[in-house]
Amino acid sequence: MLLNEIIPELEIEPAVVAQASLEAIPIYTGESYFEGVDRSAARRLLNTRPLVAKCPTMKAKLRAQINHGRWLVECPNCTSAEMAFEDRLFFCSECKNKAVDGYAYKVTFPTTRRKIETIMEKRPLTNRNWKHGETVKDLETENILLSGV
User: Fold this and answer.
1) From CA 118, how far away is CA 81, in angstroms rounded?
2) pTM for the complete prediction?
């Protein structure tokens, strides 16, 4: 709900409303996205994380990326994608990592993660995207191009 919908009698500049809306939406990981969700599927997913931690892991590492404000990891086996979790392990709920005998993958986040998140949080949700190789400077330049954010 937008600020001017909550208090409709106030005349609020659209830019102020847009910025207030952005500030309320963080860049999510699996934990923060599903935290407090009262759905059995979300609870089951979070409950599987300790099991994933017990899986043997591949030497190959996958890179987390941001897609529409969510840290995701693309499955190298079936082209699905899953939320990235703070435990830095990836296990695909679609293919169950069968191509690698059920081994989990280790996940890396960029070393500039917090800076990237701060820059992304200034953008509309549909423009909150980051892939490996994009620098903080690239993102700051994009923010200027995306309406001077």
Assistant:
1) 23
2) 0.75
